[in-house]
Structures are given as structure tokens and as C-alpha cells.
Structure prediction request, 170 residues.
Amino acid sequence: MSFVRPEVQSALARWAEAIAGGIVLALALYWLIWGTGLLPYVGAALAPLALAVIWLGVQRGRFRVGKDGPGAVQIAEGQIAYYGPLTGGVRAIDALKAVILDPTQRPISWVLQARGEEDLAIPLNAAGAEALFDAFAALPGLKTGHMLRQLEQHPDHPVVIWHEPARRLH
Prediction:
């Protein structure tokens, strides 16, 4: 039995990393200001790490939009796997040629385009879809800020979030 409303639980889960970073930052600042002995040094070393955790937690929190959608996402060994009720597939991260945010699909989906493969649509709110943040962030040249802005702006047409860099001929 839980005494916390589901909406509050959901919000806490969405922002858990940023909240944890804030708690660690508060502890680090407390040690830095009022600590004795080695504690101020520990606080000084911990504060920048806590700020990094907060920044990353905010980025990931902005990326998470829910978890009650159809299907499940797994990422392992450089592969993105989506197991949906009607469709699914596996795409190698290094074979991707484009990542598209498609708000015209219901539910809103990421569309992964890969060389020699059909497009794979993954709902934003599929179970485990938050793991796509790290997979997408590893793509060369992906602009995380652009991706997060598009998620928040709710465009009315498909938006290319990333495409593979042009290959240069030598």
C-alpha cells in the first residue's frame, strides 16, 4: 500500500536523478561550509560531481515522457530492440542513418531508419524507452538540446532529430 499519489510517484521517478544530485549537492555544500577536518575538501570535490548529476538528471527527465505505452525497449550490445504488440524489430545503433520524432503517429514515436532495413517506430512511452536517451546521445553529432526542445515543443510534423554524417570520398 502506498501513501503517495500515483502522479507524485511518476514525477519523482521522472526526476529521480536530478533530485538525487540535489541532495548530494546540499550535503556537499553543508560539508564545504560547516565541515571540519577533511569534510570541506570532500564537499569541494563532491559539489561539481553533484552538479553534473543534476544536469544529466534534468536532461534525462526532459526525455522521459511516460511508461504506459505499448511494447518494450531493450538496449544491449549496440542493438536497440523494440518488442511491440503489433510490430517490433532490432536495429544496430551503428547502422542507423536517421532518428525522427514523428508526432503524427499514435502514440507519438521515434522512427529509426537504418541502412537496408524497414523503418522501426518506437512509441515514446514504451516501457524502457528512457534508455534510448543514452543510445541517441552516443550518435555522432547528435544535438541533445535540439532533441529535447522538439520533445517539449510538440511539433505537428515529423522532425529529423539526427541523420548520419555525410561520408567523404577519399
